[in-house]
Design goal:
The structure holds two protein chains of two kinds. By secondary structure, chain A is of the alpha+beta class. Helix content of chain A is 26%, strand content 35%. In chain B, α4 packs across α7 and α5 runs antiparallel to α7. Classes of the chains: A alpha+beta, B mainly alpha.
Chain lengths: 159, 387
């Protein structure tokens, strides 16, 4: 997707792009940390309607929501480029053996050779979780390895 | 003492009420403050007593703070980007908007030095009013807005050349002295920009501090010392304040803007008031017709300037007229320039500039608000060059 970046002297930066449905959308990142979301009109292509104004904190939260699933997608892209390497997400079910146990106790890597590269918990993404990270029901583990390795991790966590 | 406190208190409350009225009407408060100064003071309804000297001194501080904040706003990246893209628009801006002021001065039989001040009064748009206006009208995201903002940046930096030139000329310096002082000013600005890049972190360490109070006191102190020194060497104190603003490195500048903006608003308000106080309503009367004519002409030339700048950015018809009308407002810097002329003894510039800024400070925001209707009403041929 092509994003145009335009400097607004004294105000900040404006980003502009066209969505696949044809809507022209702009994001004004102001110097004070606020963001304006605007949509350009059809009748007057230079005029824009402000859809939303977000404070710095609100924008951070929105970025996390939009960014979390994409990290998983990016791993999928990565593994597509390397033959023999696969990735998948494996869910920790509530009440299963490892709900409430540290990640290290699963010994997933030792037993299967597959790596757990990220842990997605709600809106948060914990990249490269340490063995001490305590798993919770509902967490999704992003696993990278061979097909058999991933199947092994899935089996361990299903206990 | 009690009379002084009460008088000042009443004045601040009145100014507060004026700002409120201006906000509700979607106008700038600057013309209202000038009018308040006119109505009070010499020949007005109530002559100020105890607070008059304080307001005058506070007004001088207001000018310094206006220029300090202007310098603090500056970013080299934004300036180079504006230069690269909008240098021709900047030239059109000065070529169209300075001559009307100069010509009117000549027609009124003023000395050429006063005419030069009037040229500045009609040239410089009010970046304060325009920036506020774009925000109020929620036009920050509009596609013509970068052309408008770039023009303002170019005008602001042009002040760094124009103000020292004007000060030397007004004080009766020779043409050679004027050229030398401009060369000096340009050199100092270039040096300051270069030094900021190389040594900015040292200055940042001197004026920067994690404590806001420290930033406030150090930046203010530095500004006053440098302003005083530039005043001593016959340049304008305002230029010194501007240079200090330019030299302060980015991160400290951001914090300094935060703590100094309320202070600027207070002292600038007192500056506009004190400028109005110097003029009595009777002095103003003979200038009203001239100011109206000048306002009409320079509103039109500013609109053409904006239309041209937006046209260069491939903006459509309505957007071009929006850009043009947004630039019409004149305000704080026109008054700063007029004040320089008045204090050099060209007192007639004062009432003319007051009347002019009152007219365009009110008409500018109104024109900008109804720009779309104006664009639709204007015949196509007159809306400027067609893309």
């Amino acid at each position: 997707m092509e994003v145009t970046e335009i400097l607004l002297p004294g105000v900040g930066v404006r980003y502009e792009f066209v969505t696949s449905s044809g809507a022209r959308v702009g994001v004004v990142a102001k110097r004070d940390g606020e963001f304006d979301f605007v949509r350009y009109e059809h009748a007057d292509p230079d005029a824009a309607e402000t859809l939303l104004t977000l404070s710095r904190d609100e924008a951070d939260t929105l970025a996390e929501i939009l960014g979390a699933p994409r990290i998983v997608e990016r791993f999928a892209d990565l593994t597509r480029e390397i033959p023999g390497l696969a990735s998948a997400t494996v869910e920790v079910r509530t009440g299963s053996t490892y709900d409430g146990k540290p990640l290290g106790e699963t010994r997933a890597r030792t037993l299967t050779g597959a790596s757990i590269v990220a842990l997605v918990r709600g809106e948060d993404v914990i990249a490269s979780p340490s063995p001490a990270e305590v798993l919770r029901g509902g967490d999704s583990l992003v696993v990278v390895g061979t097909g058999a390795g991933i199947a092994g991790v899935r089996q361990i966590l299903s206990r | 003492m009690d009379a002084f406190l009460i008088e000042l208190g009443v004045i601040l409350l009145v100014l507060g009420a004026l700002v409120n009225v201006a906000r509700r009407l979607g106008l700038s408060a600057i013309p209202l403050m000038l009018l308040a100064g006119l109505v009070l003071g010499e020949g007005g309804i109530h002559e100020l007593g105890a607070s008059a000297t304080f307001i005058e001194a506070a007004g001088e501080l207001g000018v310094l703070l206006l220029l300090l904040l202007l310098g603090l706003e500056f970013s080299a990246a934004e300036f180079t980007a504006s230069m690269r893209r909008h240098a021709p628009s900047g030239l059109v801006d000065v070529a169209l908007n300075a001559p009307p002021g100069f010509t009117v001065g000549l027609l009124l039989g003023y000395e050429w030095r006063a005419c030069l001040a009037l040229a500045g009064v009609t040239w410089i748009s009010s970046s304060g009013i325009v920036a506020r206006l774009l925000d109020d009208l929620r036009r920050t995201g509009f596609r013509e807005t970068p052309s408008v903002l770039s023009l303002l940046v170019l005008e602001d930096i042009a002040m760094a050349v124009y103000l020292p030139l004007l000060v030397v000329v007004l004080s009766g310096g020779t043409a050679l002295a004027a050229v030398v002082s401009v060369a000096l000013a340009v050199g100092v600005v270039a040096l300051v920009l270069l030094a900021t890049r190389r040594l900015g972190h040292h200055l940042g360490r001197v004026v920067g501090h994690e404590d806001d109070e420290q930033v406030l006191l150090r930046v203010l102190g530095l500004m006053l010392i440098v302003s005083g020194l530039t005043y001593l060497v016959d340049a304008s104190a305002a230029v010194g304040a501007f240079l200090v603003g330019l030299a302060i490195p980015r991160e400290t500048a951001r914090r300094a803007r935060g703590v100094l903006t309320p202070l600027r608003d207070l002292f600038a308000a007192l500056f506009f008031l004190s400028f109005g106080l110097q003029t009595s309503p009777q002095d103003l009367a003979p200038f009203i017709v001239v100011a109206l004519g000048l306002a009409l002409v320079t509103a039109a030339t500013k609109i053409v300037t904006g239309v041209y700048a937006a046209h260069r950015d491939q903006i459509g018809r309505r957007g071009r007229v929006r850009a043009g009308t947004a630039l019409v407002a004149r305000g704080e810097f026109s008054i700063v320039i007029a004040e320089l002329a008045v204090s050099a003894g060209f007192t007639d510039v004062g009432p003319l500039a007051s009347a002019y800024v009152v007219i365009l400070g009110v008409a500018g925001p109104l024109l900008a608000r109804f720009a779309d209707a104006l664009a639709d009403a204007l015949p196509a041929a007159r809306a400027g060059p067609v893309a």
